[in-house]
Amino acid sequence: MNPPPIRSDPGTFDPRFVPTLDEARRRIAAVLRPGDLAVDATVGWGRDTVFLAELVGPTGQVVGFEIQDEAIRRARDLLVQRGLQDRVTLKWLGHERLNDALDNRAVIKAAMFNLGYLPGSDHTVTTRAESTLIALEAVWRRLDRSGLVTIVCYPGHPGGMEETHAVASWAADRASSGDAIAWSCAFLNSRRPPPRLVIVAPTPRPNGNASS
């Protein structure tokens, strides 16, 4: 069985939700360059991992986190098919273990979180607010001043609304402290709780340069 086309909102695949993921990728593509380090905090079937690997090029590196065996296997197979396996390290770990997996001096240019459960797999295996917040803090402490983080949240499954609120509160706290620019969007014409995209980037320095 082939993996679903994207990690969608719970239930039947709905192409109206594709722009949410497209927007996350568009923002990532605006900052990620060859030679950079990127993190895929929720590898799933590996499509975001491939996207990041193509952007960082042969001199860059992607570190991906996933806890489901089948997802890791299929993601690895996809990377091999695309010839990208040498620039990606897949970790069979929850993303809350990010600090354990990266070198202490590693600087992340971009990170993608695509939360919720993995379509076509056990729907009781989902990301959780507590571990997601740990991972976000770990990424934030390592994030380059010119980098950013994208988080796609899915409030429509059990625990999803709590996680969405937790992520939004985390982003708002970063913004209110002056450390970050935070942005969020979601479709409003859905009868079900729609996916919500949250983007967080370090605040540019006074001279307008966001780089370290």
From TrEMBL:
PANTHER family in alphabetical order: S-ADENOSYL-L-METHIONINE-DEPENDENT METHYLTRANSFERASES SUPERFAMILY PROTEIN, TRNA (MNM(5)S(2)U34)-METHYLTRANSFERASE, CHLOROPLASTIC
* Top-level lineage group: Bacteria
Return the Pfam families for the record: rRNA_methylase
Which keywords does UniProt give here? Methyltransferase, Transferase
* InterPro entries (alphabetical): MnmM_MeTrfase (IPR010719), SAM-dependent_MTases_sf (IPR029063)
One example GO MF annotation:
methyltransferase activity
Organism whose genome encodes this protein? Isosphaera pallida (strain ATCC 43644 / DSM 9630 / IS1B)
Listed under GO biological process in this entry are:
methylation
Q: Does the keyword Transferase apply?
A: yes
Please identify the protein, giving its name as recorded: rRNA methylase
Asked if the record carries the keyword Transferase, the reply is yes
